[in-house]
Amino acid sequence: MAPSLTQVSSNKHFEGTLTKYKFKSSALGDLDAAFNVFLPANAASAKVPVLVYLAGLTCTEDNGAQKGSFMKDAAQEGIALVFPDTSPRGANVPGEDDSWDFGSGAGFYVNATHPAWSKHYNMRAHVAQELPAVIEAAGIPIDWSRQSIFGHSMGGHGALTLYLQSFLPPAAGPGPNERQYRSASAFSPICNPTIAPWGTKAFSGYLEGGIEEARNVYDATQLISRVKENVHILIDYGTADNFLFQLNPDNFLKAAREAGHDDVQVRVRSQEGYDHSYYFISTFASDHIHFHANFLKA
Amino acid sequence: MAPSLTQVSSNKHFEGTLTKYKFKSSALGDLDAAFNVFLPANAASAKVPVLVYLAGLTCTEDNGAQKGSFMKDAAQEGIALVFPDTSPRGANVPGEDDSWDFGSGAGFYVNATHPAWSKHYNMRAHVAQELPAVIEAAGIPIDWSRQSIFGHSMGGHGALTLYLQSFLPPAAGPGPNERQYRSASAFSPICNPTIAPWGTKAFSGYLEGGIEEARNVYDATQLISRVKENVHILIDYGTADNFLFQLNPDNFLKAAREAGHDDVQVRVRSQEGYDHSYYFISTFASDHIHFHANFLKA
Description:
Chains A, B: It is an enzyme of class 3 (hydrolase). Chains A, B: It holds the Pfam family Esterase. Chains A, B: This is S-formylglutathione hydrolase. Chains A, B: Its EC number is 3.1.2.12. Two copies of one chain form a homodimer. Chain A is globular and about 45 Å long. In chain A, a hairpin with a 2-residue loop joins strand 1 (6-13) and strand 2 (16-25). A nine-stranded mixed sheet of chain A has the order 1-2-3-5-4-6-7-8-9, with helices on both faces. Chain A has helices at 63-67, 71-77, 123-137, 154-165, 197-206, 210-215, 220-226, 244-247, 249-258, 278-296, and strands at 6-13, 16-25, 31-39, 48-54, 80-84, 142-152, 184-187, 233-238, 266-271. The longest helix of chain A has 19 residues, at 278-296. In chain A, helix 2 packs parallel to helix 10. The first copy, chain A, has a single domain, classed as Rossmann fold (3-Layer(aba) Sandwich). By secondary structure, the first copy, chain A, is an alpha/beta fold. The first copy, chain A, contains ten helices and nine strands. The interface between A and B is medium-sized, with 23 and 23 residues.
């Protein structure tokens, strides 16, 4: 039986409604998990397609909803948005709150295999399987057969890897179904985390097999090499991003081209002078919503 | 000599730049004051008009910049935005941090006359006189002869009263010059603060003469009755606003009509189902920017 949702708050927004819910998450070891969902006005008459936004390190389900500037265009396009949290909360694993880039707020969209973390730190299963099932069971009018995914930084890594995993199942326990997502996009994503400080720290902690275990499942640059089907990917990053050394978009682009994915399938845009902040994200938010609308409404 | 500005941060945003500065504010008793300024791309070639945004209770110079969704349209219109803080910080007046609706984060855009507060709590002088002078002296390319003002809640009160005061100088010490602002708008403003709990608490604390002293200077509903010139005012409020009892937009509208200001001069819009949050503000942000652009670019 699906867990029941408790409504935390609700705000009218661009003629639609942004609602925050919480529920007891089995994917996260029976901890309370919160998420925001934006339903455009047209959801009153029919199920709408959905775009899932994965936030970055230190964020919650609120950052994208409050600062992303996604809803104006989503409302116009008639697309729902789902904003998950970025990690379990209150798991009380030793070391969970010792650093801002590991543990709380830093789930990295993996299913943990290290025994210390594997009960709770399963954001991959939470995002790809649990949230769609729970939201569907609650009768919220979303058509999950029309689903795409995007994100920022760690969440950009999450969006790219969940999308690419959906071409290459099964792997690493509960995750996306085959072709679960129609398209993926990312702002400043961690494209090659097995060689980036944030990624290697996360994988070394959450995965029993460490970086080696991550290579085939959680590294977008590795994954794109193995996907032969047509893909729909848009990436934006800023040239003034202080974290560019963590992101490696060039590695991803090179691997994509070598695997035969052209500029229509994988578009990587370098944005002059922009940084890693939500001021960058909101500048290009409209482009990303309309990119996904092409596929969600096809 | 004008105080020098220290740059705290800078982010490229919609092809323009959002920069946070701080400086030693004499209006606020030599405390450090921070503000954000957004310059659209066209400010590189000529001075641009400016819209000042006053935030509400508990906010800082960041809330409007991060959550208001003002910059996309301001960039398109070629208008600068200035985001002041909502009070002095660190004045160490006894009681300053005892409640969320008085003291820190709650300056109410007055010049305090009570001796305990009058050294520091002069947000009226800070916004209307000091910030334009300091920004001008720093060579930031803003044309202050083309200036309008808007705000939210307490900041809506600030925008309306500073605008209306500019038709009725002199009063209450350093404040707006004659016709300093071309237009004013507000989201969920405290329209009649001398009869609202937030307003009476603030005035009783900051002003030696209390509510009586506030009536002729700091109450928009009182002020609009005395202004005979043509005005340009837009107000939006939500019918689901839990703080509607603090706002009294109907009183303001009635006083405006009785003073002969028609629907072109004073437009008050009731927005069905919206609340007091930035989700409401951002929904109508675009309307407000374009409203002011009519006058700033005339």
